[in-house]
Amino acid sequence: xxxxxxxxxxxxxxxxxxxxxxxxxxxxxxxxxxxxxxxxxxxxxxxxxxxxxxxxxxxxxxxxxxxxxxxxxxxxxxxxxxxx
Length: 84
Fold this sequence. Notes:
The protein has helices spanning about 10-20, 25-50, 55-70, 70-75. Helix content is about 70%, strand content about 0%. The radius of gyration is 19 Å and the shape is elongated. The chain has one domain (about 10-75). By secondary structure, it is mainly α.
């Protein structure tokens, strides 16, 4: 089996994959939820850097556009305050 990551030894990668396979479904879902939260935090951090004067509501609305797309975000949340 070819390795997926160059910075991980094949032996350790096989161990990681085996541990993931053995993990119960609830733990896998928990890990996905944690990963999603991390991605959201990173995305908000990037938005804050690009729009330092934006309110928290504007930042969350912009995040909704990134995740859902502009059309669906507008349908769900209404018209956005403009961020420049």
